[in-house]
Amino acid sequence: MNHPLPRDLRPRRVDQLLSQVKSESSIPSRIEKLSRYFLGRAYQADPLIGSANKAEVFTASLDAFDCVTYIETVLALSCARNVDDFTARLRKIRYERGVVQWQRRNHYMTLWIRNNVREGLLRPVSIPAVPTVTTDRVLNVVPGLAPRRTRMKCVPKRAVPRLARYLQTGDLIFFASTRKHLDIFHAGIIVRDRGKVLMRHASRSQGGVVEQELSDFLKANRMTGVIVVRP
After folding, report:
1. What is the pLDDT confidence band of residue 3, given thresholds at 50, 70 and 90?
2. CA separation for the pair 216, 19 (Å, rounded)
3. 160 phi, psi to nearest 5 deg
């Protein structure tokens, strides 16, 4: 099946980025380099086009992000061989079975994780020495989308310092909301640097893509816990 090119795609820039990581031998090293490239890019709230009453438009901006599109873009680039491969991977990451429809978009991040694990792109990080808690929620914060039940297992906030020693560069970290009808409120990319555990993420409050210590983000935000997956 032929697919139209995403809106805002700049194929030449994608080619340039892929050439810069061509010599990197692993996905984590590619993620580190690509996520660093986007530091300082602007934050854009609600960057995707589509709703229950408006047709979905597949987009692929390299200039501004929210926390989800930042992760999606870096992940798709890190696995891609060329421009067409990048757009195909981004489509599959963002939409269930790669079908560009608003109803098929992975609106909730537990669904995003589940679908991308099923696609073989990610695997959950589970450490026997680190405790987890399981919660059931009915998600209903997306207007026009029917409520859906989800079950999520996360490392409680108090145990994240114990988890941190096992985190690796390229891991994706998701922060479980304290709101009973929402699963995840934010997400980022882990980078280890000389003993520090850093997170790169598109931050609304800071107005762009930033890097900060994970411990600082934990101190500044309320959360139920975290979920970590590994490409």
Report:
1. confident
2. 34
3. -60, -40
Q: CB of 52 within 8 A of CB of 112? A: no
Of 184, 9, 183, which is closest to residue 87 (Cα–Cα)? 9
User: Read out DSSP for 105-164?
Assistant: B--SHHHHHHHHHHTTS-EE---TTS--EEEEEEE--STTSPPEEEEEEEEEGGGHHHHH
CA dist., res. 137 & res. 148, Å (int) = 8
> Looking up tokens 């602007």, which residue turns up?
42
Contact 159, 116 (CB under 8 A): no
pLDDT in tens, 174-190: 999 999 999 999 999 99
CA distance 121 to 88: 13
Strand partners, 110: none
CB 214 within 8 Å of CB 224: no
- Residue 41, both tokens: 């890019």
Q: Tell me what the mean pLDDT of segment 108-119 comes to.
A: 97
Q: Which band of pLDDT confidence, cut at 50, 70 and 90, is reported for residue 1?
A: low
190 touches 173 (CB < 8 A): yes
Distance of CA 184 to the CA centre of its chain: 11
The two three-digit tokens of residue 104, written as one number: 């098929």
pTM over 0.90: yes
Q: How far apart are CA 124 and CA 47, in angstroms?
A: 27
CA nearest 14: which of 66, 68, 79, 111?
79
In 10 A of CB 153, how many CB atoms? 14
